[in-house]
Structure formats: C-alpha cells, structure tokens
Amino acid sequence: MTLIASTTENPYFYIYNALLSRCTVFEFKSLTAADVEQGLRNALKKLSESEGTPIRMEDDACAYLAESAGGDLRKALGCLDFAVTAAAPEPEGKHITLDMIQQVTRRTAMRYDRDGDDHYDIVSAYQKSMRGSDPDAALHYLARLLEAGDLPSACRRLMVCACEDVGLAYPQIIPIVKAAVDIANAVGLPEARLPLADAVVLVATSPKSNSAHDAINAAIADVQAGRTGPIPRQLQNKHYDGEDALVKGQNYKYAHDYPNHWVEQQYLPDVLKNTKYYIFGEKNKNEQASRAYWARIKGEEKRIKGREGERKMRYSKQRELVLRTVEQLCDHPTAEEIFDKAAPECPGLSLGTVYRNLNSLVEAGRVRRVSIPGRADRFDHTLCWHSHLYCTACGGVVDADVDEKQVMRLVRRQKDVVVQDCAVVLFGLCEACAKKQAEG
Question: Which residues are CB-neighbours of 173 under 8 A, at least 6 positions away?
Fold first, then answer.
C-alpha cells in the first residue's frame, strides 16, 4: 500500500517518528511572482477558449496580481476568474485592467495560521529583530502580524522583549511599552498600529541588557536543583525563641538605621552563601551607574578593581570554564562535582549556571551527556563513539574496554545495555571492585 498525503504543517513536528521514518518527505516552496505570472498567462488562454471570446489583460494588471498572490497560484487564479466574470463584454472581447484587479484582490494573500509554523516563525522573527536592534525588520514583522489580525501576539512579544532584551539598560521602557499596549487594546485595529509602531521602534533602538534575564534563570535553576536551605534566622518572620535556642533574639539589622541605608548581613541561605546571580550589565549607563553607587556605598572600589576580570566573567567565559573543568576531571563528573571544582576560580558561579552551561555544551556537541538510570547525569569531553562501564558496587563510571564489534553485538542484543546519543553504558563491576570481590 502506498500512501500519498499533503499537509500545510511541518511533518517533523506533527507526524509520529515511527511513521515519518518510513516516509519520503517533499517540501513544496512558494512560487515566485514570475511563476505565478506564467500560470496566469496560461490560464488566460484557457479562459479565452472556454468563453469563446478573446480575453486581454494589461501587463501591469498581470504583474500586480502575480505579486499580490503571495506565491499562491490558486489565489491568483481565483481572482482572475472573478475579474473575467465581472468584466463587461466588448466587440473585441473582454479587457482586464489594473483597476479591476486591484478591486478584486484588495489584500495580499499571506500565509498565516495562529497555531501553525508560520505564526511562530513570524513572532520569532519579530522579537529577534527588536533584540537585534533592527527597527525596519521589526516593523515589517509587526505589519504582518497586524495584517493577519493577531493583535495579542504583537502586544505580548513586544512586552516580553522590553523586559527581556532591554531590561535594566533602560528600565523606564517597561511602563512606556505597557502604556502603548494598553492604548492599542483600547482603540483596536487599525489604529492600534500607531502606538505599537512607536513602542517597537523604541525597543529596537534602545540599549540592551539581559542581566536580569540571566540572573533569574540561574536562581530558578538552583531552586529546581534543590539548592534552597533554611532561611537565615534574622530574616524569618518570627520573634520568639524557644528555651532550647542557643542565641536569643532575631538579630535582624534594619538597613534604614545605618548610614546610606545599607548594612552588611547575610540574606541568602547558608547553602547559597556568597552566590552571585546578578552581574551588572556592561556598557549601559544605568547599570554601570548603579554598580558605581553600590561600590562606593559598600566600600568595594579597590576589591572591584582588583578582581575586575572575575566580576566581568560573562556567560561565554563561564561556559569555557565549565568545559575546561570537565576536561580536567576526566572521570565522567556530575554537575555538582564540576561546580565544586570550578567555583573557586569563578566567585559567584552557581550550580544553576553550571547546569545551563552544560546543556549548551551538549547541544553544541562539545560535551557528551552520559545518563545512568536512577543516577545523576555525568558528562564526558570525549566525543567519539566508545563505551562506559557503570560499576554496580562503587557507583563509579569508567571507560569500558570494548571494541566496536563488541559494542554493536551488545546493542543488537539490548541486554543490560543503555544506548545514549554516541555511547553505550554497560553495567557490571569495575576492575578494582572485581579484584576485591575475587580476593574476598
């Protein structure tokens, strides 16, 4: 049985892999304006024959219809058929003018489905254009959203971009954008295009900073990894100490009672003490002014200048540090082991940041993840195909001495073997444990 089917959606997202692996997928691209124009010329000949009267179409009218069809020949043929039907017969035949075509087309055919790939492609390009500081491209994609009547998506992505990509470099932009969105929703389309265009240009041309975005993501990663701990006693919302308390009193220091409304005390739980999530954004006046202010207040000018390189360590440098640590450890370390090794070299590094960098390195193909069922993931810097042995006695992971043919035989049998992206994990005893067992 041969099944032939078509879809306007991306088959790699909407068809089961088991079925997709047995299919040959062909992608049909949108037609060019020249292709559509040729199709219209052929249709005119067919219509002249079927109508029994000559049908002439102005070159400008044909080019306009081909361009406005948006690559959809069916749309162009439908408009042509309507124009021919509506055209008044003349002694020399029917004459299709540019004005007639403009009346029947009205709007350019545009591919857009709020639940389909075109929707997500447009909103992605819309936000990325604002993030990339290209106001012209951002306005283009805004126009496509508005022409499709998708006002909610245009407003939502605009507010997200203001918070995520401009952020603390120009924090006043957040209420400005919110006001523009409120006006757009109040007046509705088509007038909504005006406040939204103002806000889009403002976001695209504003200075950028994602320091708060990176900070909250790192904090969430730590919470999700279980790194929370008890809240420090001085911050807890209670004022009674039991008889067994060694230190009486909450001992909270009220910041406003101290010079410059600041006093040094511990706010993070002990397990996260000295962790730095937020790093002041570089090269924007707002965050640098805040940084200089707190450096003066906290008396840290000398320490900041002496450790400028460490405090400016950004995500890309942290990622290289994580990669270097994986290579140094060599024995398939866990994320926690990598964090313990790298933290002294990068003050303020968090476990959440390590996890995020490891995921990026795995996606980039620079580190391999070795998943052990029921155990924490381990990581390996060796990217070639080889095998790992997970010792069921000591829990260690070592490289298994198995050649490629043995590996393939084990994979075919699928017995006590877990297949990873480019590795096979075997379960058994490592050489040291096997020796101890033999001696015992």
Answer: 162, 166, 202, 203, 206
C-alpha to C-alpha distance for 66 and 38, rounded to whole angstroms: 9
Give pLDDT tens digits for 299-336.
754 454 445 444 444 446 777 888 888 878 766 788 88
Question: Which of 167-171, 384-388, 391-395, 430-434 has the highest mean predicted lDDT (pLDDT)?
Answer: 167-171
Distance CA 371, CA 381 (A): 14
- Tell me the CB-side half-sphere exposure of residue 62, using CA atoms within 13 A: 17
Rounding to the nearest 10 degrees, give the CA dihedral for residues 108, 109, 110, 114.
120
- Residue 419 sits at φ, ψ, to 5 deg, of -90, 125
Q: What is the pLDDT of residue 301?
A: 46
The two structure tokens encoding residue 280: 């002041």
Are 334 and 340 within 8 A, CB to CB?
A: no
- DSSP structural state of residue 280: P
Q: Output DSSP code: residue 32.
A: P
DSSP run (H or E) holding 184:
helix 173-187
Instruction: Specify the amino acid at residue 118.
Output: D
Write out the DSSP string of 60-96. HHHHHHHHHTTT-HHHHHHHHHHHHHHSPPBTTBEEE
Q: What is the H or E stretch that residue 290 is in?
A: helix 285-297
| Coil, strand or helix at 350 | coil
- In one-letter notation, the amino acid at residue 313 is M
With tokens 């998943």, the residue in question is 371
Dist. CA 248–CA 74, nearest whole Å: 82
Q: Which two tokens stand for residue 251?
A: 């001992």
Helix (H) or strand (E) holding 368: strand 368-370
Other CB atoms within 10 A of residue 440 CB: 5
Q: Are 120 and 154 in contact (CB under 8 A)?
A: no
Residues with Cβ < 8 Å from 179, sequence gap 6 or more?
A: 195
Query: Of 40, 41, 52, which Cα lies nearest the Cα of 94?
Result: 52
List Cβ neighbours of 23 (8 Å cut-off, separation of 6 or more): 11, 15
Measure CA 335 to chain center.
Answer: 22
Q: Which residues contact 424 (CB under 8 A, 6 or more apart)?
A: 387, 388, 400, 402, 407, 410, 411, 417, 418
Q: At what angle do helices 351-363 and 315-329 cross, to 10 degrees?
A: 80
pLDDT at 245 over 70: no
pLDDT band, residue 195 (cuts 50/70/90): very high
